[in-house]
Amino acid sequence: MRVEWESRLAVDTNHRPEQLLVNVPRDCKHLGAMHVDTGKFAPEAMKRLGATKQAYRPLRDSVFGSPVVRQPTKLSLATTLLWSRMFLYASSWPHQSMQGLEKLATLYNDVHRQTVHRTRFPGQLSDREIFSRVKAPGYFARLRATRLAFLPRLYATAPSVVFALLQQMKGRGGLDWVCLLYT
User: Fold this and answer.
1) pLDDT tens, 154-170?
2) How many other C-beta atoms lie within 10 A of the C-beta of residue 101?
3) What is the C-alpha to C-alpha distance for residues 1 and 133, in angstroms, rounded to an integer?
4) I need a labelling partner for 82 at 20 to 30 A (CA). Which of 14, 35, 56, 160 fits?
5) How far is residue 138's CA from residue 122's CA, in Å, rounded to a whole number?
């Protein structure tokens, strides 16, 4: 892990009378995910998009566009091959940059649209109709579920300083982690 330290953040805790100083990195790469202090998501979004497209392109027409392959099989393949790449490290993504999320959402929607055989459902269907017919959650619902799945691991393994950061009030410079669930 490479880390460049920018500053220190004072955090109030319930366990200590004094504030705890936490090093805040300018940018770091941790377990393959890029994190920057500005909250920009573009570098990580492009990595996720590239990895997902790399897995999707060879199968786009032969599997996902094929009328022979059954829809449950297509969705199962999408979950194991595509969404595992797309939502990797989603629990740590910043919520400030919708641009990166929109690009990922577009690919997510396109894959689901491709799984619906066009002769069975002729005409232009909205994204909501596509997700209803394939019985799959929309992109942002899947993103929220992925983030919520991380919460038990965080609770079981995170040091108390992480919870102190998460509990900081928004106006006092803390992290509003709960808002990550709503992007």
Assistant:
1) 778 877 766 665 655 44
2) 21
3) 43
4) 35
5) 21
Q: How far apart are the first and last CA of the chain?
A: 28
Give me the mean pLDDT over the 134-155 stretch: 84
Distances (CA, A) of 37 to 6, 24, 25: 9, 8, 7
- Closest of 44, 123, 124 to residue 87, by C-alpha: 44
Kindly report the number of other CB atoms within 10 A of residue 100's CB atom. Answer: 21
* Three-state SS sequence of the chain: CEEEEEEEEEECCCCCCCCEEEEEEEEEEECCEEEECCCCCHHHHHHHHHHHHHHHHHHHHHHHCCCCCCHHHHHHHHHHHHHHHHCCCHHHCCCCCHHHHHHHHHHHHHHHHHHCCCCCCCCCCCHHHHHHHHCCCCHHHHHHHHHHHHHHHHHHHCCHHHHHHHHCCHHHCCCCHHHHHHC
**What are the backbone angles phi and psi of residue 180, rounded to the nearest 5°?**
-65, -25
User: And the tokens for 84?
Assistant: 């595992």
Tokens of 140: 């942002």
CB 72 within 8 A of CB 117: no
